[in-house]
Design goal:
By secondary structure, this protein is mostly beta strands. Helix content is 0%, strand content 34%. The chain has strands spanning 2-4, 7-10, 13-18, 33-34, 41-43, 54-56. The radius of gyration is 13 Å and the shape is elongated.
Length: 62
């Protein structure tokens, strides 16, 4: 196990970033986690006032 910026990388996934988007290139596949060390969260407009107004900017389709 490697510790990087307080993020736990375990068996190829980041224990700090949960993810259920199986269609993403970075999804761990066997568990609901991301394989990236960090992700970028983006907003849809000039301000984000709800969860629906944000997205994972690191998403890439398989």
């Amino acid at each position: 196990m490697t510790t990087h910026n307080k993020q736990q990388i375990h068996n190829g996934h980041n224990d700090s970033i949960g993810c259920v988007v199986d269609e993403c290139k970075y999804h761990a596949q066997n568990v609901d986690y991301c394989t990236l060390q960090q992700i970028k969260i983006v907003k849809h407009g000039s301000s984000a006032n709800s969860m629906q107004a944000t997205d994972c900017g690191s998403f890439e389709a398989i």
